[in-house]
Amino acid sequence: MSRATQELPRTFGALRASSFSEAKLGNRTVKDEIRNNLICKIQKGEELFPGIVGYEDTVVPQVVNAILSRHHFILLGLRGQAKTRLIRMLTMMLDEWTPYVEGCEIHDNPYRPICRRCRDLLAGSADDAPIGWLHREQRYVEKLATPDVTIADMIGDIDPIKAARRGQDISDELTVHYGLLPRANRGIFAINELPDLAGKIQVGLFNIMQEGDVQIKGYPVRLPIDLMLVFTANPEDYTARGKIITPLKDRIGSEIRTHYPTALEQGIAITEQEAWLKRQSPVEVRVPDYIKEVVEQLAFLAREDKRIDKRSGVSQRLPISVLENVVSNAERRALRAKESIAVPRILDLYSALPAITGKLELEYEGELKGGDAVAREIIRAAVGKVYDHYLEGSNVAQIVQWFDLGGSLKLDEGVDSENMVRQLGGIQGLMEKTKALGLTANEPDAVRAAAAEFVLEGLHAHKRIARNEERGFSAEEKTRERREDVKTERPNFRRQYN
How far apart are CA 246 and CA 237, in angstroms? Predict the structure, then answer.
């Protein structure tokens, strides 16, 4: 027994004499409980769904309305839109502790028992009947819908072994083995990817959603279970494929659409919150703001790209995974160079290609080009956009002129930051432009090197300078590249880091 429950009533008689009286709990349903606790949170001005970013003015108000209306509801959205995370947070709307008849498989309300065992136990004088306590986290049951789910899994079935062991008739109610739904009684039951649930199983949800009861096989047994049902689904599965039967749609009170972050700042906040950046390491990791913006811009551009399947979407897990890979590559470089600070560079974005290509579902045009090539093009476009944010209108003529006069620079990933800064410092006017990124003169070499490389990559993104694998940054190929661009009527993205 935990300390939290030591002072709670342990018998039915003590329960009736406590604050958990029949007047309070007797007729209150789960939906009433969640509604009342939500009202208290709103009145106190508490944050309803901490950690959910970007839904404050869209999804959250609709979820609140559904709860206040005592609706079963469904969240419709593409992958990586925090649907499951949001519904799991509904447990915060439940009471911290709830009494039940101890030993009951379906956690019966002591004041309103519905199973045969508990009704017999509490019949007449039952002050000594044992009472157990459920924490709010134990009142949430989640099931991923798969085609192999059966009615027995969801509702229940006859258990001949139980009947044999107890010496009971097979038709006795006490021989029933309860499924997931009855075991979630007095709680929240969530079904992820609802369209993947077989039609005959969806039919089994009808009575629960409308009348609040289930029937197990041929038993003349009615269990008026108390549940809030919530679902998630992909919009394509929910509508285009017609895999949710119409009567079930009709019984879902609210249909709520989720979405990806609408502003770059929201996406950055989500990625920073979810990415594993605060890691134990011999080196200090510093992620510049412009790197975070480029990583997030990748996802925004990918969602708009015609070569990427919009029906599948681009998950928010993409920028999270990319940022983790970018930081890991910078960490690896710092460890090999025996440096104390690891700062991600644009170079590291190309090392994170495995975290990008696996999360993109390509259309026909994208398949022809190849996932790797599409990802590289999106990286370059993202760098160009973020470059404009920091350096649009800046006079970079000196830098471009240095390359036009025959200058070239090949940056090796294995070069330590000090030597890299020395090489970059030889380009006239380059280090001066890093001030636009918020750098000061006292910044460590790793920070300065990353910033200078970003400026060069931005110039390349805008075709002011060229770069290829063999020769690095230069101006010699610029004219030829532009001729090829005109010829092919699309940007030449042949240049990239290994």
Answer: 13
Instruction: Tell me the domains of the chain and their CATH numbers.
Output: 3-257 (3.40.50.300), 264-488 (no CATH)
Q: Which helix (H) or strand (E) holds 355?
A: helix 354-357
Do 111 and 103 touch, CB atoms closer than 8 A? no
Q: What is the DSSP annotation of 11-65? A: BHHHHHTSSS-HHHHSS--HHHHHHHHHHHHHHHT--SSTT--S-TTTHHHHHHH
> What confidence tens digit (pLDDT) does each residue in 108-134 have?
999 999 888 888 888 876 888 999 999
Cβ pair 226, 109 in contact under 8 A = yes
Answer yes or no: are the C-beta atoms of 35 and 41 closer than 8 Å.
no
SS3 labels along 203-214: HCCHHHHHCCCE
pTM for the whole structure: 0.86
CA 414 to CA 416: how far, in whole Å? 6
According to DSSP, residue 240 is labeled I
Task: Give 171-208 pLDDT, tens digit per residue.
Answer: 556 667 788 888 999 999 999 999 888 888 888 888 78
CA atoms of 48 and 92, how far apart (whole Å): 9
Dist CA 267 CA 265 (whole Å): 5
Strands 97-101 and 131-135: antiparallel
Kindly state the average pLDDT of the residues 388-407.
91
Largest CA distance in the chain: 100
